[in-house]
Amino acid sequence: MPRINHSALVIAxxxxxxxxxxxxxxxxxxxxxxxxxxxxxxxxxxxxxxLTATDRDLIVRVRLAGLWELPAAxxxxxxxxxxAVKEAADHLIVGHADxxxxxxxxxxxxxxxxxxxPTAQQQGWxxxxxxxxxxxxDRTWANLLRSAHGKIFPxxxxxxxxxxxxxxxxxxxxxxxxxxxxxxxxxxxxxxxFDGIANGTV
Length: 202
Prior knowledge:
With 202 residues, this protein is mainly alpha-helical. It is built from eight helices and no strands.
């Protein structure tokens, strides 16, 4: 076989191999907040117990929650005229400030990569709040936050039940208590559309 053809085959093979290796990273690029290191790592042993992909996912989710819910709560404290909404916002500020600190501490100890900005969907929720005024703002704010809390609640319980990592278990326990507190106060605003949440329209 002529040398030039042999070289071309080698180059083609190397290109194909590099593309195959790169594909897993590219395929997760649209999963905002999920770092390549988190995706690539399977279960690893730590001094606090095995760390699974599901464990890492919860840590990332706690971080992401704080990245959009803290700004949303701070905004409500300024824009809402409802005492009940302001009370719920205060609980979100206190709760997520604490959870974010805990999540970052756990992530640092376990070597988990964390995002620094909300996902595109979360940014969209913040934009919906920005575009609302008056009573419509209170309804939009309360429903978006109540729906988000309701969706993460069963995930937290599943991780809390299954994890064998003591740091993740404690974070899940703390997160569970905080999310339940937030759900309770969001519902007390009187703005939550339970039918819309149940039907997935909120």
